[in-house]
Amino acid sequence: MKVTLLGSRGSFPHIGPQMVRYGGNTSCVEVIGDDGTVIILDAGTGLRNAPSALDSSVKRMDILLTHFHIDHLQGLGFFAPLFNPGMEVHIWGPPSTMMTLHRRLARYLSPPLFPVCIRDFTCKLVLHDAPRKTIGLGGLQVTCDLVCHPGPTMGYRVTDGRSSLAYLPDHEVALGACHFPDEPEWTSGLKLAQGADLLIHDSQYDEAEYAERIGWGHSTPQQSALFADEAGAKRLLTFHHDPNHDDESVDGLVAEAVTVANGVVVQGGAEGMVFELPAA
Amino acid sequence: MSPQRPIEIILLRQWASHMATPIWIAGTRGELLYYNEPAEGLLGKRFDEAGQMRLRDLPKIFETTTPEGKPISEADLPLGRALRERQPSHLRVRITALDGKSRLLDITAVPLLVQGGAYLGAMAMFWEAEP
Fold first, then answer.
1. Model pTM?
2. Of A60, A100, A133, B18, whose CB neighbour count within 10 A is largest?
C-alpha cells in the first residue's frame, strides 16, 4: 500500500517560511491499497491535496475520522469529491450514544460556522459509526479502537495482509499508565501499534510543554519513541506538530526522540512524504 | 506482554487514582483490576502487593457482615450484584480488614457498560459511615 502524508500539523494550520519542510496543513493521510482502495485518515486542511481526489478512476473513497476536533474536519468543506455526483464517499467516525454522526459533523458543516451544509454535498454520501473491531474496506483491513484523548477518539490500524500502518495522530499515551512505558496492559493504543511497519503518532509537545498540559490529549516525541519501541513498531513518524514549532524545533525534537527509540527508525512526519509498504 | 486493557478501564483507573474516595475496579469475572490508594487504607494492603485476586478472595482479606453482625457472602456484596445483575447496587456493611479494625461502610457499585453495548466489569466506591 502507498501512504502519503497530506498534513502533519496539529491544532491549527500554520504556514510560514520556518515551516516549509514539515508543512502547515493539519492532519490528513492518504492510503491507497494495491487494488486501488482509497482510505483517507482524517480530514484536516491537507485533505484538499489528496491525489485520489484528482483521479477519475476512483469511484469510492472512505474517510476515517479519528475525532471531531476542527483541525481534523476542516478540509471536508473544500474537498472536491464530496461535490461529485459520480463519487461514493463513506465517512466513518467514533460512535456516540447521544448524537448521530450526521449531527456531530453538522455542528461544523452548517451556518454560522460554515456556509455549506452536509445536504449540499452532491456525492453519494454514507455515514458510519466506526465499530471497535476490524472492518474490510476493499483490499484493506482497518482495525478501529478508542485511544486516550479528550472526547471519543479513534486510532486506526490499516493492513493489506503484508504490511501495517498505525495512525494515532491525537493520543496522550502516557496518561493512563502510572509507570509509562513499563505497563503495556495500561498503555492506550498499544494493540493498534503492535509491530506496525509504520507508526504515525502524536508528538505535539516538547517535554516542558507537556508538563504544563497533562490531560490535554497529546504526547511528546520522546514518549512517542518509547511507545513505538514498546509496541515493536519498525518506523515512527512524529506527527501533529505544534503550530508554534518551526522546522528547526521539530528537527531538535526528533533528534531527542532518536536517543530513546532503541533502534526504532524515527523521522519527523512531513507533508508530502510518501511510503510504499512493505518497504522494498 | 499482557494484552492492553480497553481505553475505558485505562481512563477509569487514571481517574480513580486521583480520587480521595476508595474505589475498586473489577473485570467481568470479578477479577481485581485496580484499587486506589484510599482503598488500600481500607483493605490494609497496597495494590502493587495484591497480585491476582478475585471477588471470591475477598473473605480472605476481610470479614463482611451486616451492620448487625450477620455474615454476607461476597456474591451479595454490591460489587458481586453489579457484576451478576449488571445493575447498580448499594449496601451498608461492616467489615473487619487485615488491620483488625471494624468499619461500617456504605458501598455503591455500578456495572461498566460502555458505548457500543460492551460490558467491561464493575466499579465499587466505599464511604466510611463511622469515620
1. 0.89
2. A60
